[in-house]
């Protein structure tokens, strides 16, 4: 697994692009994604505010795992939705190390 900073560097920019779009497109059928967006927004702010230091994201990742059923991708969504869950899981896994 990648180190946290590397995982953030690889994924945060794309997540910042994808998360609002996926929320707009899929939020109606998957209202839990609005909660994913809220938690991701908190993570994004904390990551930016800590620079190269590792922020305290235990609660945020715990919340994401609950909301997403451990990043289980619903069967009726697009590749972007799946990509968001995969990227969030990658950052979460790197954080846990």
Question: Can you characterise this structure?
Answer:
The protein is mostly helical. It has 4 helices and no strands. It has helices at residues 4-26, 32-50, 58-67, 79-96. Helix 2 packs antiparallel against helix 3.
- Most strands sheet: none
Radius of gyration of CA atoms, rounded to a whole number:
13 Å
Shape: globular
The H/E string reads HHHH
Poorly predicted ranges: none
Total number of beta strands: 0
Count of helical stretches: 4
Approximately how much beta-strand content do the residues carry? under 5%
Q: Look at the helices and sheets and give the structural class.
A: mainly alpha
Average residue pLDDT: 94
Estimate the helix proportion, in percent.
over 70%
Report, as a whole number of angstroms, the end-to-end distance.
Answer: 8 Å
Can you give me a brief rundown of this structure?
With 97 residues, the chain is mostly helical.
Q: What's the layout of helices and strands?
A:
Layout: H1 4-26, H2 32-50, H3 58-67, H4 79-96
Helix pairs in contact: 1-2, 1-4, 2-3
List keywords for this structure.
mainly alpha, 97 residues
């Amino acid at each position: 697994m990648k180190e946290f900073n590397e995982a953030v560097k690889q994924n945060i920019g794309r997540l910042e692009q994808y998360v609002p779009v996926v929320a707009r497109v899929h939020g109606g059928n998957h209202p839990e994604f609005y909660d994913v967006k809220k938690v991701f927004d908190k993570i994004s702010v904390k990551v930016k505010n800590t620079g190269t230091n590792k922020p305290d994201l235990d609660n945020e990742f715990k919340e994401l795992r609950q909301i997403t059923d451990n990043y289980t991708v619903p069967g009726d969504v697009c590749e972007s939705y799946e990509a968001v869950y995969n990227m969030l899981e990658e950052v979460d896994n790197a954080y846990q190390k």
